[in-house]
Design goal:
Blueprint lengths: L1 H35 L10 H6 L12 H11 L5 H8 L6 H10 L3 E4 L2 E4 L1
Antiparallel strand pairs: 1-2
Helix pairs in contact: 3-4
Length: 118
């Protein structure tokens, strides 16, 4: 009977050590995620910056989503944000922020629910 108790206590102690190790790993992972927020780990390079190369300037380029949205408004006056998002195959929430900025810069204007060139 004493041997059974000793074996069971040893198994419990081993399992507790495993659980303590797992708790430490989970706490470290949680800390890493909450200390900076979810995203790229520190020290990782910005892939966009690496692709851009030394000679390409930052800022508006012809391939940006804002420029794509502007082209759609110019080619389809009266187009709505959901229609633009569908054509661009993106979620519309981004466009609800971008189109008013294009309106402020004088590129487009709102006409009812749609957008037209200024």
């Amino acid at each position: 009977m004493a041997e059974f108790v000793d074996t069971t206590v040893k198994e419990i102690d081993d399992r507790l050590r495993e659980l303590k190790d797992e708790v430490r790993r989970l706490e470290a992972a949680r800390s890493a995620l909450t200390s900076r927020g979810a995203g790229r780990p520190r020290g990782s390079t910005n892939a966009r910056k690496a692709r851009r190369g030394p000679g390409r300037p930052r800022g508006r380029r012809g391939g940006t989503r804002a420029a794509q949205a502007l082209r759609l408004v110019r080619t389809q006056p009266g187009i709505t944000i959901p229609e633009i998002a569908s054509a661009m195959k993106i979620q519309p929430n981004y466009l609800y922020r971008v189109l008013p900025k294009l309106e402020q810069s004088g590129d487009i204007k709102k006409d009812g629910k749609g957008w037209t060139p200024a």
